[in-house]
Amino acid sequence: MRRLLFCLLAALATGCSATVRTPPVTLGLPGVTDTISWSKGLRYGIEDWRRQFRERFGDDPIIVSCHGDDDGHGHFVLCPDAGPLLDAESVCRTLHAAYPKRRILVVSCNVGHHRLTCPGVVYPLDYVWSQPGPDAQFCLSELSVITCIGDLSEFTVNP
Description:
Layout: H1 2-14, E1 25-26, E2 35-37, H2 46-57, E3 62-65, E4 67-70, E5 76-79, E6 86-87, H3 88-98, E7 104-107, E8 121-123, E9 137-141, E10 144-147, E11 156-157
Parallel strand pairs: 2-3, 3-7, 7-8
Antiparallel strand pairs: 1-2, 4-5, 5-6, 8-11, 9-10
Helix pairs in contact: 1-3
């Protein structure tokens, strides 16, 4: 089952690419929460999000950490450092099918405010800071500062 999940996620990450790019996935390690991080620069905040998730929900999620955007056609997409855009709903449904009793935490900007329908998913409806905290802002330019979601209490929770 885990091999199948790995292959499905690898296929999602590579699309029609001629070369296979294996996503950094750790699944099923005893005592380790499963993490998928397709954006290298966002990995430093994963443990803080995990800790906040445990405090709020009491269990460990599968964390999907990646830059995110709107594809221009009404879909929430994940934007890996390399490879094609990934439909966030499809990624969550693949993980949910493999691990139906685990919650999935998506730490990714959702600039189009798109709703996911997959059960057991916790995700933002706006920009999200890569590390939780009260100072969740970043500058697009000298004149433009965006306030980001920096706390799980602002995330949407699908039952």
